[in-house]
Amino acid sequence: MTDADRTGTGHTGTDRTETGHTVSDHTRSDHAGTGRTETHRARTEPENVSETVSQKHTKGSGSRPSRSLPVPDLSLVVLVGATGSGKSTFAARHFKPTEVISSDFCRGLVSDDENDQGASRDAFDVLHFIAGKRLAAGRLTVVDATNVQSESRAQLVRLAREHDVLPVAIVLDVPEQVCAERNAARADRAGMPRRVIQRHQRELRRSLRHLEREGFRKVHILRGQAEAESAEVVTERRFNDLRHRTGPFDIIGDIHGCRSELETLLGRLGYALVHDESGRAVDAAHPEGRTAVFVGDLVDRGPDSPGVLRLVMGMVRAGHALCVPGNHENKLGRYLKGRKVQHTHGLAETIEQLDKEDDAFRAEVQDFIQGLVSHYVLDGGGLVVCHAGLPEKYHGRTSGRVRSFALYGDTTGETDEFGLPVRYPWAEDYRGRAAVVYGHTPTPRASWLNNTICLDTGCVFGGTMTALRWPERELVDVPAERVWYEPAKPLTTEAPGGADGRPLDLNDVAGKRIVETRHMGRLAVKEENSAAALEVMSRFAIDPRLLPYLPPTMAPCATSKEEGYLEHPAEAFAAYRADGVREVVCEEKHMGSRAVVLVCRDEAVAAGLFGVPKGVTGALYTRTGRPFFDDAETTEHILRRVRDCAERAGLWAELKTDWLLLDAELMPWSLKAAGLLRKQYAAVGAASGAVFPGALGALEAAAARGVDVSTLLERQRDRAADAAAFTDAYRRYCWRVGTETARMAGAREAAAPAAGHPSAVASGSADRQAGADALDGIRLAPFQILAVQGRSLAGLPHTEQLALIDRLIAAEPEIGVVGDTAAAGESAPAGESAARDGAATAVPADRLGLLAPTRRLIVDTEDEASVAAGIAWWLDLTSDGGEGMVVKPVQALVRQKDGRLVQPGIKCRGREYLRIIYGPEYTRPENLQRLRIRHLGHKRSLALREYALGLEALDRLADGEPLWRVHEVVFAVLALESEPVDPRL
Questions:
Q1: Least confident stretch, 351-355, 648-652, 742-746
Q2: Which pLDDT score, from 0 to 100, does residue 773 have?
Q3: What sign for the dihedral angle of Cα 279, 282, 288, 290?
Q4: Do 437 and 453 contact (CB within 8 A), yes or no?
Q5: Short-list 501, 916, 874, CA closest to 670
């Protein structure tokens, strides 16, 4: 059999579906003569199954040549014959020992006696169980038993149907005398009564003419000892098994009669059209030998279904294409055979168009449709192409149920508001290794979902016609020339996710959730956590289309035993050393808030890829999904600066992307925490500034009068010093920003010399002239590029990440000093300024530009000198109140020996910074002792789970999965944030 035969090409009159009958000894006039109606057969078995006769023999014929018995490589082979007919010998000669399941062997398993007929019921239970497991695993299975009774065979046929494989019968019709002699030669059967053999022979005779009606798709009858001994079993590939064809392929979605768009798409894919003498396209070939694969629905609704058929049939005939049937071809095929079908859903237009063609063409179309195979397994099993989708359990299987699913998919039995059936979302549950490419259900744009992709992008409805290049996984599409057929249901909606054809739904996030991740398996989200996240998302978060990622919480280092310290880098280095991580990078922690930056190359990219309105080019949001700025203009100024720097650094071209997703720190901290500063931190500072001077004055006056208050005075002095240190700690993270700072800078500029003054440099900036005054005092410190178009960069080593970030920052031109300590009013009383406007003191004098670098140091955790240098570096960072550092493995996505993820980062915060977290007096020995008793296990577990969810969000975003899939994971990160943790952390 040639490959062309297997792919349904170059034949007429026979159905190249997966379940064609083969009868090897006798024929019957009506292979479908089971009394089934046509409607029932359409759902239970493929239509037009035809029989073939591999060889016919009549009783009493002369010498018999060697018989060839074709057996599908995945099937249930049932040996049928009386006891002593040689079934076990035949099985041993033609099949592997592991492929054969013997009833005798199973009797021995359950009773220690292969001839114990009393154990037959249990033995066959075991036989059916083993056979079922083998068939489920896709293994050829042979049942060696007498199987002369129809009841026994019926159980095996049902088993084959349950696993969607073909049942094949091989009958050994051997004379009674031969069976008796063979049994007599076996010690364990020497005493078997002759009547047992005679009964088997009678039952066999009654069975022969009914085997096909019982459901066997191939029946081979071997008459006599000589014929049984000379037969040869030939394993043949299933029609849908084209694993040996590795492509490359161009898989083309639903066409629906749009011939012109198909020709345009083939041209874009590089195919050269071949025309007949009338100028009609009849073939197309690719100069590099690529093969086109059509997912069906070639016809109906569009302007030229015959033209599409002529081109596709020509390509298939020439070996330039493969094609699977769609439900519209199936219906057209039944019409062409004279069956009664409703002329709806575009069939009437196709019939009218075909009436203009000659009889020969219509006959060719009928034969072509009749020979199409429900689905193909390609490229070593890594690719499955079908019309309506196919769960993994059906891949490569052969049954009416498989064919029905491949043609129509599965429905819930409900209809939507447009009167269309609600389809079961099989792809949402798909977890198979093979990529499934299909069509059938129109969607606004093709996107990957769980390694599946629908290519029906509604060309006939005015959408596009889409092709997938495989193995490149590159999508190519062309727009429809017009709306050829008004859809019953709009392709898109205005709701978030509507551009993907699947708007966000409350059921995607409500209640208890189980989220599948690639790096940590299944992660659970509690119902109460989902409710908390839903409150935040629905009230405060930015547009979910611009919220593809939320950063995870970060685990702190183990409690330090160093005197006066709660956290110390020695513990972080020791933790990574214990996990087998030798090289780590220490990154400066900035004095701001965690920020995620999504920046698109232009408005068109943002609108096309993320579906956002005009004027929006990205987003800048907090770690809980809230926008940093109330006015979109300030956000756009920052995005414009980052975008320009990426252009100057050449990152757009180098990374081959039209968007960047950055993890960063936005400064000052007061940008996000102004309310917190007023109500909590500034209040403490103001109260201490108001109370302690008077209290200390009174105590000092009492001491001067000779009252012994030395202990109390010393204690209050220490408390006052702690309060002052607390105020200094939070004031370092706060300064004025925006137009107020710009106005102050402008006043200084008027009084300063025009030449050489930093403000003069700033005033000449084109960026500032474009309205960048709002950026004065704002600093953005990016430290990782999370993802770009088509791929996640989360696995890139941190040294490479920081090198890219350095280039981005270096591309920003210097824009000058935006403030100094004197101008910002540092002389205001401690706490008073912050209480008044939420921001203390000043913009540091060295703040140049928007983008800030991240200082870093590489440490070898197994080198004492390197560890000591890392500790010294941290002490230097934190000596003047700096926040501290984050320690990360240089290599990303590191796992321990047992396969568990290593913490992606451990934060080690400075001694003075921790006053902001734990209060002014946390360094007192008694307080430190209490704080050291903290439980890190849950916090670390939470950090890893959120990290895995973040990685999953990036992978789904990079894979182009629909919004609801990305949002599901982002929502889960926020939900986990509401889990209670040790308050001492």
A1: 742-746
A2: 65
A3: positive
A4: yes
A5: 916
Q: Quick one: which H or E segment has residue 111?
A: helix 103-111
* DSSP state, residue 716: H
Q: Which amino acid is at 123?
A: A
What the block records as the tokens of 209 is 């003419």
Report the alpha-carbon distance of residue 457 to residue 480 in Å, rounded. Answer: 10
Neighbours of 900 (CB within 10 A): 10
Q: Please, are residues 73 and 235 in contact by the beta-carbon 8 Å criterion?
A: yes
Element (H, E) at 181: helix 176-184
| Residue 482 burial (C-beta neighbours within 10 Å; 0-12, 13-18, 19+) | exposed
Above 50 in pLDDT, residue 471?
Answer: yes
Give the C-alpha separation, 311 to 274, whole Å.
Answer: 9
DSSP 753-800: -SSS-HHHHHHT-HHHHTTGGGGTT-EEEEEEEEEETTEE-TTS-HHH
Q: Which of 343, 333, 334 is nearest to 298 (CA)?
A: 333
Are the beta carbons of 144 and 88 closer than 8 angstroms? Answer: yes
What are the residues whose beta carbons fall under 8 Å from the beta carbon of 887, sequence distance 6 or more? 557, 569, 572, 573, 576, 584, 585, 586, 587, 859, 905, 906, 907, 908
> What is the distance between the alpha carbons of residues 272 and 249, in angstroms, rounded to a whole number?
15
Give pLDDT, residue 695: 86
The reported pLDDT for the residue numbered 983 is 62
Q: How far apart are CA 2 and CA 20, in angstroms?
A: 17
Shortest CA distance to 222 belongs to which of 234, 232, 210?
232
Phi, psi of 454 (to 5 degrees): -100, 125
Q: For the chain, what is the mean pLDDT?
A: 84
- The Cα angle at residue 393 between residues 20 and 71, in degrees rounded to 5: 35
- The pLDDT of residue 412 is 66
Distance CA 605, CA 612 (A): 9
| Closest to 314 (Cα-Cα) out of 338, 284, 337 | 284
Q: How far is Cα 355 from Cα 179, in angstroms, rounded to an integer? A: 62
Dig out the tokens for 306 from the structure. 């015959």
Decide: 486 and 461 in contact? Cβ < 8 Å: yes
CA angle 197, 198, 201 (to 5 degrees): 90
